[in-house]
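Re: export button greyed out
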Amino acid sequence: MSPCAHAEQQEPDAPPLHNDHHRHQTYVELYHHGLHHVKSSALLCAVGLGIPGAIHRRGGAATVSDLVSGTGVHPAKRAQLRRLMRMLACFGIFGAAGGDEGESETVYTLTPVSSVLVGDKDKEASATSSASSPDMSALLRLLARPSTSVSTFFDMEEWFRDGGTTTLFETALGVPPWSLTKSDAAYNRAMNEACVADTSLSMDIMLKDTSGGASSVFGGGRLTSLVDVGGGHGAAAIAIANAFPHIKCTVLDLKQVIDNKVPPAAAAGTDRIINSTVQFVAGDMFESIPPADAVLLRHVLDCWDDEHCVKILGQCKRAIPGREAGGKVIIINVVVGYGSPDKLVKETQVLFDMYMMRYDGSEREEHEWREIFSRAGFSDYKITPTIGFHSIIEVFP
Amino acid sequence: MSPCAHAEQQEPDAPPLHNDHHRHQTYVELYHHGLHHVKSSALLCAVGLGIPGAIHRRGGAATVSDLVSGTGVHPAKRAQLRRLMRMLACFGIFGAAGGDEGESETVYTLTPVSSVLVGDKDKEASATSSASSPDMSALLRLLARPSTSVSTFFDMEEWFRDGGTTTLFETALGVASWSLTKSDAAYNRAMNEACVADTSLSMDIMLKDTGGCCGGGGASSVFGGGRLTSLVDVGGGHGAAAIAIANAFPHIKCTVLDLKQVIDKVPPAAATGTDRIINSTAATAVQFVAGDMFESIPPADAVLLRHVLDCWDDEHCVKILGQCKRAIPGREAGGKVIIINVVVGYGSPDKLVKETQVLFDMYMMRYDGSEREEHEWREIFSRAGFSDYKITPTLGFHSIIEVFP
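Workaround output, generated via the alternate export path:
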């Protein structure tokens, strides 16, 4: 029986401290769980209003009055803005100082999280800006996007009762995401901008990790060519080429992605010097992958079910040399339960898995990865937890 | 300058551990913040599927296979159900044991949170059920309700830019909340059921608080002591709180004041939402009066305002408090107003409590309500002509405020 069932059998007048504390915790937790959606919406709102940028423009500290004059918030909503900021500060998204007893205005400051939500325009306008803080607001705008993210979970109960193969996304929006990106320009832009933002920060973190992570995966000299499959507009490949100039990088993606390639300078989202050796090839990873020492699959396999993953991996295996010759497939994805024991990382991994579930993707545990590697004919693998909540998996033929 | 601004000025090759850890934390936190809405939806889904009840019916432990056969989940969705349960277990909503390396099925168990989400039907069917765990799923269904809660925040950015007085709720749904309860029977039912569920647990916690935790005596000092012989629960709905008080303090004659359309629908036996034995003396003693708190409040030793003032702006609160003051005797005669509401920043220093308080404040903001800090409460008490007040943090994230004329 569960601990709670045991508690239920206690006399009503049993030691009140334990019982009452137990129920207090339950009551608060229930509200906390039920209301947590408000935080995602509130943060999205603050980003949309440009609050991180407004704080940045004032040198990193601002009062609510400053924010009213520095954003588009209407003065009549000043009291509500204070409450919004109070909530976000309570969650550590902004820092707060002063304001006790309402006698002086609270001063809000940037934290590591809100600093990466300062828009590029605001950073460019400031002498203190640094390329090390790319604008991540686009990522947040996708993850908490009302129509294509939050609302897609509204009918999850009915979806679980239905035996069909329609995804949550299709159930909510009538079409799959790849189809919506063609018909809905705003969604397409939201997806592309989020991908650029995510790549900019995550690749930067990963490639600068000199403690045996990326340098052992990409470095060492044996790797002289790499194909980034599903590499989009090349942000990841460009980052790798910049960090490891000896590797010739190619991006393989669908024709409509390659054709819509934005200028590399904008794609990287930074002012980093562009390495002109990155090449772009249009093609279908289920048909053929250009030969290289290594194939990179970054956030690709979690979009597909096991059957499709085995097919993709089969094509990768054909594209690379044997293990003795240094061939390998490099996968960057979540390995659920792997990496930092930090509760925040574990929670983010399972939240992301649910997010991917809404269009039939999944984040796998190690034993699930092992199974598809084996079915695709690979002999061995090595997982390196990288910074963040993802891992790098090297798979050897 | 902020600490981060300082970090930005470091050389790119500065101590990698510190810099990388800093950025790692930021990256994970950003995803965590952006995706947290999924948890509310997922929990709502699990409750709708009856998962807590299915676990309960199996004696408190169940595998995913058990859950597929014990709920309406289609067998084709078994793998997805496992992932849903894995996520909820990671957040402590269910317990999980076994299942390592996928070689055996994980066994899911109930935790304190999921135990209060077991439906009443499931509890009635089980010999081990206890009245001490009321079904709180109705509360969750309101807080995370897609149309009347989650979606009302979608246009918050535009709302902040607009100078009008339309609430977020009205912006999203076209009508005010009280108006929607009249036209939308499902919403009205969701509101009433949530109120009953919340009252059932919170009043039970509060009234059983014998002072061991808070030190200040809690409910017994607020309601006990013999000086209080009558109380009016203003906005008391179907009487759940008043009945709970009357059961706990039989010497107090309790009256519920609410609007006519609320009083007309009072179902006394169902009001408490539990199978607790109704104190027939109390049930007889609790009276229901239809009226408008802005017009007149029946006289009593004390007026109870539970979750009333946070629904109104300061001007309206001062008017309500003015009517309360007229209804009670002077301080020397023991008259007081008892307010049960959040006092933001008050009570347990626990981060969970603080976070819940500010989340609830945003929730109330969507229909022009607010949760106040102590200095804000003090201001409206003063404007309404009260001389003093005393705050007792109660369990949960609310406080009891006694206000003296």
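The first helix of chain B runs from residue 3 to 8. The button fix ships in the next patch.
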